[in-house]
Amino acid sequence: MKFEEKTINRREIFKGHIFDVVVDDVALPMGGEAKRELIFHKGAVCVLAVTPDDKLILVKQYRKAIEAISYEIPAGKLEVGENTAPKAAALRELEEETGYTGELELLYDFYSAIGFCNERLRLYVAKNLVKVENPRPMDDDEVIEVYHVSLDEALDLIATGEICDAKTIIAIQQLQLMRK
Predict the structure, then answer these.
(1) Of 9, 25, 130, 152, which has the maximum CB count within 10 A?
(2) Separation between Cα atoms, residue 86 and residue 108, nearest integer Å
(3) Beta-strand pair 120-131/44-49
(4) At the topology level of CATH, where does 44-179 sit?
(5) What pLDDT digit, counting tens, does each position of 92-150 carry?
(6) Is the pTM of this model over 0.70?
């Protein structure tokens, strides 16, 4: 069976710092045509950071897209030139958002919402965390509060809906699986 849709025409709607929006006219594999509204994202990294005293590091911040406060693992978009060095980008984000650094190991390489977006996330686990004496500053447009929670507390935050971010849920549930 054929699955691939062929792009007939692409119309650029928006070109931004973080993502671009296009509308594609596509030829369907079994005949006919359709429109696809797509977001092309430059990619992101995220870090499951566990301190030496076995606490997960979460950041609390306001997310305008959902008009709510969110608890998440440290994360951020890839900056220009970081596409070939996502591990370095993850270390940068970890230090900027939490003041920690450590050794990173890739857990997952996944997409956030493949129905309309190509945002590729690389999820790392941070081991042997140490506090940085003079950490890099946070981005000027970020207001973040750092939390240290146990795995059980993090699972409770998922159960109550206070953690509603997919990458964070994936990371915490993966940690739970690794510990079984």
Answers:
(1) 25
(2) 12
(3) parallel
(4) Nucleoside Triphosphate Pyrophosphohydrolase (3.90.79)
(5) 999 999 999 999 999 999 999 999 999 999 999 999 999 998 877 777 788 999 999 99
(6) yes
